[in-house]
TrEMBL record:
Keywords: DNA-binding, Transcription, Transcription regulation. Pfam families: HTH_27 (PF13463). Residues 4-137 form the HTH marR-type domain. InterPro entries: HTH_MarR-typ, WH-like_DNA-bd_sf, WH_DNA-bd_sf. This is Winged helix-turn-helix transcriptional regulator.
Length: 162
């Protein structure tokens, strides 16, 4: 088999490794892996903190985001605030509990990356980062082409407020 095809399977294997490493945190917090990812995203998102922003960054469906946001709000991990100019738009923020869980998840991710990168030199890492940046660019372009083909409406990105 062509070794370049291994790249297609490595992403899946890396994700499974991270999910396995996150099991203890998921059990202690009662959150799903995707909810931990959303908390981590919000910890670095700045003003890109709406359900639409999360959906675009994480490539998750409206239903998936809505369910996760509802649970994060119910468990006291996030706050929701109406946009000053558009009441339909809700900005998400982290509570103290949410910030702690995001930091815990970041430690889990850091440990997972350390295990994956064991034995990889700094020079090899730099080369890998360069290649990954090109691959990410190609994926973003391909994803944008597919998204342009599917009709998008404003309500596709709204979440339930109840």
């Amino acid at each position: 088999m062509n070794r370049e095809y291994d790249l297609l399977y490595m992403g899946h294997k890396m994700r499974r490794m991270l999910e396995h490493a996150s099991q203890e945190l998921m059990q202690s917090s009662g959150l799903r892996h995707v909810e931990l990812e959303i908390l981590f995203y919000l910890s670095y998102s700045g003003t890109s903190n709406t359900a639409r922003d999360i959906s675009e960054a994480k490539h998750l469906s409206k239903a998936h985001i809505s369910k996760s946001v509802d649970n994060l709000r119910r468990t006291g991990c996030i706050t929701m605030k109406e946009d000053a100019f558009d009441r339909r738009c809700l900005h998400l923020g982290l509570t103290a509990k949410g910030r702690l869980l995001a930091a815990d998840y970041e430690r889990v991710m850091s440990g997972t990356v350390d295990r994956m990168m064991s034995g990889v030199t700094l020079e090899e890492r730099a080369g890998m980062q360069s290649v990954l940046a090109k691959i990410r660019h190609n994926l973003d372009e391909a994803t944008a082409c597919h998204e342009d083909q599917a009709p998008q409406t404003e309500e596709n990105h709204e979440i339930d407020r109840d």
